[in-house]
Amino acid sequence: MPDPVDIAALYDAHSGPVYAFALNLTRSEADARDVLQEVFVRLARQPDALEGVREPRSFLLRWTHNLVVDSARRRETRNRRNDVFQTETLGVFAGTDDPDEATFRAELSEALGELPEDQRAVVHLKLWERLTFEQIAETLDLSPNTAASRYRYGLDKLRTRLRPLYDEIR
Amino acid sequence: MNFDDHNVPIEPDALERRILGTPLKAPPAGWKAEILARALAEEPATASSAPKTVRREQRPFAGWLEWIPDWLRAVPAEWAAVAALVLLAVGLNWSLADGAESGVSVARGSLRDGPTIEGAIYLMASRESLMRELGLTEEAAPGPGPASTARPAENRPRRQLNQSGTNDVALGWV
User: Fold this and answer.
1) Which residues of A touch B27 (CB under 8 A)?
2) What is the spatial distance between Cα A60 and Cα A41, in angstroms, rounded to a whole number?
3) Which of A29, A105, B18, B26 has a beta carbon 3.0–4.6 Å from A93's, enabling a disulfide?
4) Is the ipTM of this structure higher than 0.90?
């Protein structure tokens, strides 16, 4: 049984990025919560999973990505079975009292949601986790060049989508 | 503007800088206790619950099979079986074709140079191919049956001895 302090410390250190990444990919609070819980349940079941791991954050984000992919498959099956097509527009950013900033965050959240999931994952890891393309490649199991090109495409789409706002803030 | 190895600008532009400053949602504080309680209630994976793996010394052919590349190991058994059958059929076809051809050539050599045991064997083995090559057909069996495809007697080649008198199977036009 792992030391409860260890799991709690790991939760404090990594739950935010894990949840935000899961939320940005799944666009569902319930699914993101399931993923977050599953990551820490897995950690408890495999106490030595992080042994010898240089970047625990990248490792946990990799688990998160894999769980999101699995959950997306399950959700697709469920939706097909129930003939449900939900289009959830969910903010992935923290709330703010500043109306301009709130508008920007809402636009950005929507623009991110319009990106294909593979590009969104790379953009998220590059911009908010500050991972290098090599680290992103390792996390998402693809080549660094693919990660870089997905980032460029994703960012270009964000620029086009946010052009009016982007011109204002430039 | 400077670019990194992946042709991406090193310095973030205005949009990137603005995005970087945007805080993401954090998980609600109330979840922590619940998730940790759920996680800590889990039994850690033990030896008995872990997937069973066969130890190396229990796999007698492990060393022999190591040369097989991973991509080949990933091929499903059904596909491998079909591919093996196709290769076998193609190989057998080539082998038979080669055999018939070499049989004809040895038999032809035998007709030219005199009888040999090898020539006789090939002659028997490739009789049909040889006859087909030489434009001959089988004699029709006597009695009722399908019409004979053999040439009329007057058109058949006559057997004759060659000059040395040693070739008793030589055909007239060889």
Assistant:
1) 15-16, 19, 33, 36
2) 12
3) A105
4) no
How close is the nearest chain A Cα to the Cα of B57, in Å?
26
Compute the nearest-CA separation of B84 from chain A (Å): 33
DSSP string, B139-170: PPPSSSSSPP-SPPGGGSPPB---TTS--TT-
* Inter-chain CB proximity A16 and B22 less than 8 Å: no
Q: Which residue has the tokens 């066969």?
A: B54
Q: Which residue has the higher pLDDT, B13 or A46?
A: A46
Residues 6+ apart with CB under 8 A from A130: none
Residue B13: which pLDDT band, with cuts at 50, 70 and 90? Answer: confident
Q: What is the number of residues in chain A?
A: 170
Model confidence pLDDT, tens digit, residues B139-170: 544 555 555 555 555 555 555 555 555 544 54
